[in-house]
Sequence to fold (274 residues):
Amino acid sequence: MKPDEINFVADMARAGAGLRIDREKVYLIESRLTPVARREGFGSIREMLLAARHKRDETLMWAVVEALAAGETWFLRDRPQFDRFRDEILPALARGRPAGQAIRVWSAGCGSGQEPYSLAFMVEDAAAAVLACGVDILGSDICERALEKAQSGLYSQVEVQRGLPIRMLMRHFEKQEDLWRISPRVRAMVCWRRVNLHADFRALGRFEVIFCRQVLSVMDPDARTGALERLSQALAPGGYLVLGADETIDALGEAFIAVGGGLHQRNPAISVAA
Fold:
């Protein structure tokens, strides 16, 4: 790829999704875009970018942005955070909550769905008080192809072997030829929606828990601050924001109380501007 092509791609990714693209990592950019070019019927990345630039093909431009936004995920990634979700966060939220008033949980930037399904596994093992309230789980991503895979609930042998204990595999999956499918029971616990964290998502409403791990770290600093502000507005007072263990939210100051291990609780005494 030539410098002008790299700059075009980087600018498009930043404008569309707030992504920070390392322009020095040409191989990574090419490895992400080559399959897109082939899928869209172009002989090269250059041909595809020329079409996107001169025809202003929005569908094609978004296909490029989505490919660059794709992240890595696996079941029960950073397992201690899931254990705390089950053993600490859900019971705390259920305490004193009327039965039937569901706890809303959002997995933002969920990729191909391993994170929201992992949350569903934890809900099934939660305390009786949590089950009495009920838990609604939303999985979202910017990439439509990733969401299609997530909704199918189909995963390869390699994908289920990565991070998933055998007992959970046998309990929550069904063998389907060479693949494994999430059980209908668990699939019914999660709903899906395409959401761009770089845009307004107030229509989603408020959540008691938001998982947004290793997503903000790949965004441009200004875009990251804006996304974090919108996430804080989507979080109910006293609710929990779960980031990657090495991610911080210093930009919002006292709006959150650090709990440790990537967990942050929305400070009920501090209002965040809507």
Q: What stands out?
A: Residues 3-69 form one domain. The beta strands are 103-108, 135-141, 154-155, 173-176, 179-182, 190-194, 207-211, 235-242, 256-260, 263-266. The chain has two domains: 3-69, 79-152+185-266.
